[in-house]
Design goal:
This protein is of the alpha/beta class. The chain folds into 2 domains: 127 residues, NIF3 (NGG1p interacting factor 3)-like (Udp-n-acetylmuramoylalanyl-d-glutamate--2,6- Diaminopimelate Ligase, Chain: A, domain 1, 3-Layer(aba) Sandwich), CATH 3.40.1390.30; 122 residues, NIF3 (NGG1p interacting factor 3)-like (Udp-n-acetylmuramoylalanyl-d-glutamate--2,6- Diaminopimelate Ligase, Chain: A, domain 1, 3-Layer(aba) Sandwich). It contains 10 helices and 13 strands.
Length: 272
């Protein structure tokens, strides 16, 4: 018998409990039935129309995304509206959709830990702590990570290291080329609201995405360098990790297939 949505979600909640999500966030089963049987899963960063088409053509039962498919309240569901059309397509093709967003960012083993691991950081700690009540009492969780590099870099050297590790065609850098990097703070996705935390932790550089001009000015004034590795570039790294994590379910159902979306969701490109 195939695994149910409920069983798969239970496993995901061991990695990224839904109660860790920020209050403003929307996580969990967006569309579908908890008792729906699942034999094929597709994992993607976003459930954009191209991913939904891929799921339909691949006869997928469940899409798992990092970014919430439904984020703000919906006033209507119409075929002539891009979100409404996608909802219609998912329901008509009996495809469930689950999203794990800030709970996956905050969780140990989530997006921020994965980025820290890829960048080979040592002595990794939480960047911005928060208290979360759980069955085990209050535990320390938080957004972002801060750690040290294995050797000293100049800013330009470390930026190239980051670019290569994340396999990015380009990144943006703020700061003096020869600025020495020992301590690194990071927040995947759009994390400039944690800039002061990075400064308070005495980081030499802050890595995130979606850096605005005035945010860059503020960082420069505070004496911390920035590496903007993009929203997509810092978060798509979680997709293969989720696939690997869910492989344990294949021991319970050998017919279960776990696929990674082949859709490139990066919208930005550089015209050279």
């Amino acid at each position: 018998m195939s695994l149910t949505c409920k069983r798969i979600i239970e496993e995901l909640n061991k990695l990224a409990p839904e109660q860790l999500a920020e209050e403003w966030d929307n996580v969990g089963l967006m569309i579908g039935d908890m008792e729906q049987e699942v034999s094929r899963i597709l994992i993607a960063l976003d459930a954009i129309p191209e991913v939904i088409k891929e799921a339909i053509e691949g006869k997928v039962d469940l899409i798992i995304t990092h970014h919430p498919f439904i984020f703000k309240p919906i006033k209507y569901i119409r075929r002539d509206h891009f979100l409404g059309k996608s909802i219609y397509e998912l329901i008509q093709n009996n495809i469930a959709l689950y999203s794990a967003h800030t709970n996956l960012d905050i969780a140990f083993g989530g997006t921020n830990d994965v980025l820290a691991q890829i960048l080979e950081l040592e002595n990794v700690e939480i960047l911005s702590e928060l208290e979360v009540k759980s069955r085990n009492g209050e535990e320390k969780y938080g957004m972002g990570r801060v750690g040290t590099v294995k050797r000293k870099y100049t800013l330009d050297e470390f930026a190239k290291f980051v670019q290569n590790k994340l396999k990015l065609s380009n990144i943006r850098i703020v700061g003096d080329s020869n600025h020495i990097i020992n301590k690194v703070a990071l927040t995947t996705g759009s994390g400039m609201s944690y800039l002061q935390d990075a400064v308070d932790k005495k980081a030499d550089v802050f890595i995130t995405g979606d850096v605005k001009f005035h945010d860059a000015q503020r960082a420069s004034q505070l004496g911390i360098a920035l590496i903007d590795a993009g929203h997509y570039g810092t978060e798509n790294i979680i997709v293969p990790v989720l696939k690997e994590y869910l492989k344990k379910l294949q021991e319970q159902d050998h017919s279960l297939e776990i696929l990674i979306s082949k859709v490139n969701g990066e919208l930005f490109r550089i015209n050279i």
